[in-house]
Amino acid sequence: MNLNQVTLPVKNMPIAVDFYQTLGFKLIVDTPHYTRFKCPEGEATFSLALEDKDFDSGTTVYFENEQLDEWVTTLQDKGIEFAQLPTDEGYLWREAILLDPSNNKIKLYWAGENRLNPPWRVNPD
C-alpha cells in the first residue's frame, strides 16, 4: 500500500494555487473547485478542494527538504510568512511552521534518518 495524496480544503482556489506554486509545487490538475500538485522531488502529490462553508481542517501537512533553512530563507524572500522559523525539536526533527491562506497548518522539515528510524522506533513486524 502507498499513500496517494492528501486533500486540503481551501476558501479561495486562485490564492491557494498561487501560494503552493510559490512554495515550489508543480500544478498538474487545475479546475475551479479542485487542483492537484506534484512535489518537486519524488512522486508524491497533494490536492486542494474548494470549500464554501467555514472549516477548521485540524490537519497538519509535512513537506520534507534536506535544505530546510535555505528553503525557508528563499520563501521569506518571496514574501512567505512563518509562524515558526526552523527549530530543532525534541523529537529530532528540524521544523518551520506556516499557515496557508486558508489557515491549513504546513510544516516544512528535515528529519534525516530520524524520520523512519528514531531512537524510540518499535519493530514494525
What does this structure look like?
With 125 residues, this protein is of the alpha/beta class. It has a single domain (7-115), classed as 2,3-Dihydroxybiphenyl 1,2-Dioxygenase, domain 1, CATH 3.10.180. It has two helices and eight strands. It has helices at 13-23, 68-77, and strands at residues 7-10, 26-30, 34-38, 45-50, 60-64, 84-88, 94-99, 105-110. Strands 1-4-3-2 form a four-stranded mixed beta sheet, with helices on one face. A four-stranded mixed beta sheet has the order 5-8-7-6, with helices on one face. A hairpin with a 6-residue loop joins β3 and β4. The longest helix has 11 residues, at 13-23. The protein starts with 6 loop residues before the first strand and ends in a 15-residue tail after the last strand.
Would you give the CATH topology?
Answer: 2,3-Dihydroxybiphenyl 1,2-Dioxygenase, domain 1
Specify the CATH architecture. Roll
What's the total number of strands? 8
What are the low-pLDDT stretches, counting only 5+ consecutive residues below 50? none
**What's the overall geometry?**
globular
Structural class, by secondary structure, is alpha/beta
CATH class: Alpha Beta
Largest sheet: 4 strands, mixed
Percent of sequence in beta strands: 25-35%
Total helical elements: 2
- At the fourth level of CATH, the homologous superfamily is 2,3-Dihydroxybiphenyl 1,2-Dioxygenase, domain 1
Amino-to-carboxy terminus distance: 16 Å
Number of domains: 1
Provide the residue-averaged pLDDT. Answer: 95
What is the radius of gyration computed over CA atoms, rounded to a whole number of angstroms? 15 Å
The largest sheet has its strands arranged as 1-4-3-2
Secondary-structure element sequence? Answer: EHEEEEHEEE
State the helical fraction: 10-25%
